[in-house]
Amino acid sequence: MRLSLPLFLLSFAPSLSTSSSPTIPHSPSADAASSIVAQMTTEEKYSLLNGIGWSSHMGQDDGYYIGNEPAVPRLNIPSLNMQDAAQGFRTTDIRQIGQVTAWPCSLAVAGTWDAELAETWGAALGDEHRGKGANVILGPSVNVHRVAVGGRNAEYISGEEPKLGEVMAASYVTGVQSRGVLAVAKHFALNNQETNRNTVDSHASERSMHEVYYKPFAAAIEAGVASFMCAYNLVNGTHACGNSDLLSRDLKGRLNFEGFVMSDWWAVHDAGYEDAGLDMDMPGTDSYFSADNLSAADDGRVDDMVTRVLAAMIRSGLMSADPSAPAPFPPLCEIPGGCDDLMFNATVRTPEHVALARQIAADSVALLKNENDVLPITPDKVKTIAVVGSACDPSNHKEEMLKVWNLGNFFVMGGSGRVIPDDPISVLRGIKERAAQDGIEVVESVGSTDSLAAAKRAMAKADLVVTCGATTATEGADRSSLSVDQDSFLQSVTAAAAEMGKPVAVLLTTPGSAVVSSFDAGAAALLNMFLGGEQLGSAYADVLFGDTPPSGKLPVTFPLAAADATAPCESNPCEYGEGLEVAWRGLGGKDVGYPFGHGLGYTQFGYAWGEEPAVAEGGGLRFSVSVSNAGERAGREVPQVYLAFPQGAGEPEMQLKAFAKTGALQAGEAQLLEFEVSAVELAVWDEEAAGWSAVEGEFEVRVGSSSRDIRLSAPVQV
Ligand SMILES: *[C@@H]1O[C@H](CO)[C@@H](O)[C@H](O)[C@H]1NC(C)=O
Ligand SMILES: *[C@@H]1O[C@H](CO)[C@@H](O)[C@H](O)[C@H]1NC(C)=O
Ligand SMILES: *[C@@H]1O[C@H](CO)[C@@H](O)[C@H](O)[C@H]1NC(C)=O
């Protein structure tokens, strides 16, 4: 594609490399790995490339994880013990329930817009995995949401913007790998829907691949991620795990990934995928990478595959570069056979982790509206709260969930990302515990079927009504709608409350975008938390009572109607015809329910430039913004930096390029935040040159409290 602007090819930084053929890495860790490979027998090499341990029973045999590679004790190579991921250590056995933390989903972490918190979470995940004997976590899941009903959106830590995903993915990887656990960026690439997920053939332009869909993956690489997992879908007519343009040219070549690529479970469909760039077949029971099959592979390529695996293990501290030296971490249990005690007996859910799960959930809450400052709840305004609706006290049905791998509920998603909580805290329980401290009475109507008459009886006694709307999602299927399951009940409750003159706060639990138009007008306050895990109700209470002022921002759009959002493809090819106008970016001219980046506090914030945007050394932009608390209560704000490219650059009207989260600001307090937008952020992908091209001209920097609440803007000539 030709751009009508002066362009010059950027070639000064490794991340801007335009090399197109994969090179065998020559880092110190790769060299150390090569010397270990030189000591390995052919059988030992093959054994590291072909997964073991999977069975049909919930996917996991006793003594095995979700996937494993056996150890090579002779060379001090530990086994790889792999476990999912998206909400913590995956529970597949009843004994594990309660031994591990059921964290908020990854999308909730994205909703905090807090890079430091994401890294702290990553470290805690690393500790729990390691404590259970797993040294590989099958995350982060980083695909940018394209399809609002996407069944795995709750797992995807990028939300609708690559920049959010870049920051969150890098923080996660850094946190996890600091604990000697390998992280796996997935699902590469264009895994954007669950409908026909094994046969959908995604076609995106190279430019949108590099500018949107690859970006969080590239950030994971820069953070040192050990491994990639290729996706189920096809890209340009070829399955992702056998696609050499995707894995060799783009991932290992243009993105310079030096780690190893594992397949998703059964995402290999033919022999010879090693030629395309796949390094490890998981779960391996399909035997495409059996010793027999691999004996037909090129020996140099096999050595490259094993080198990549071992180098990643060395880099992440899982084993020593010197095979005669002991591992830097205490040895793990070894597959096969030795892990039962850790897997089924070790409790790694600590009070610190429970507190962190609660903090993440609370910090993820987006306050979408708060008319007449109905929140926070204070004893001078509220003597009695009515909690109405079954979704405020949903059941957890552990046994049923254990039987059906992809059953979700109103605390956790279904599928491989699921962590079944033992005794999750509902909204009702969270509110009751907190209200008691203030002597506030709680009346309830939360039976398993929603009854308006019963709800009205409770509401009649209250100064404030709290009601809940929830839905869940699962791997393997897209959501059938964007509504919450109680949509019509919420309509009736808000209408009845209006007649009774009672303010209503609606608390949502969602796995992604939601349409709230039918009850929004009747709600005085509206809050969203993505599937919040075991501490959901306590976290909601923290926010409602103002102990933790709301500071989350939507990482997705809440459209007015489902039809406004991109629907999954039903047939092939699946053309990504919107190009760079992905998700919220394509809704520019349209009214939405709540826009990308939206979330209020219990206070208001003022914005002022510190230093106005200017071109920095190295070609990027530099500026600072002072955010001040102009209201009466404490709060935290997330100033978001959007960039508008010069006319004619072919870019969306604006895109997120940076953000930061303030500390807790007391009334009257201000914080100066420094921003840098690097040169590559001002570049576009030039398909002909297969590299980044800088754009010159007048950019506009827009700093806002959401994508539709821009507070500062300044032109800058680049
Ligand atoms: C997919 O096809 C497009 C259009 O032909 C091409 O530009 C791009 O390089 C291909 N990408 C991959 C990963 O195959
Ligand atoms: C490799 O394995 C697959 C699945 O087991 C089998 O169908 C195929 O024929 C094998 N190919 C070679 C070259 O051995
Ligand atoms: C778990 O701990 C109990 C009690 O210490 C012990 O009897 C049992 O053998 C352990 N289970 C496994 C699988 O190691």
Automatic annotation (TrEMBL):
Signal sequence annotation: 1-19
Reaction(s) catalysed by this chain's protein: Hydrolysis of terminal, non-reducing beta-D-glucosyl residues with release of beta-D-glucose
Gene3D superfamilies membership: Glycoside hydrolase family 3 C-terminal domain, Glycoside hydrolase, family 3, N-terminal domain, Immunoglobulins
Fibronectin type III-like domain segment(s): 637-707
Keyword field: Glycosidase, Hydrolase, Secreted, Signal
EC number(s) from the headed UniProt entry: 3.2.1.21
Locations listed in the record: Secreted
Database matches in InterPro entries: Cellulose_deg_GH3 (IPR050288), Fn3-like (IPR026891), GH (IPR017853), Glyco_hydro_3_C (IPR002772), Glyco_hydro_3_C_sf (IPR036881), Glyco_hydro_3_N (IPR001764), Glyco_hydro_3_N_sf (IPR036962), Ig-like_fold (IPR013783)
Domain of life: Eukaryota
SMART domains: Fn3_like
Family: Belongs to the glycosyl hydrolase 3 family.
Purpose: Beta-glucosidases are one of a number of cellulolytic enzymes involved in the degradation of cellulosic biomass. Catalyzes the last step releasing glucose from the inhibitory cellobiose.
The protein, known as: Probable beta-glucosidase G
Source species of the chain: Tetraparma gracilis
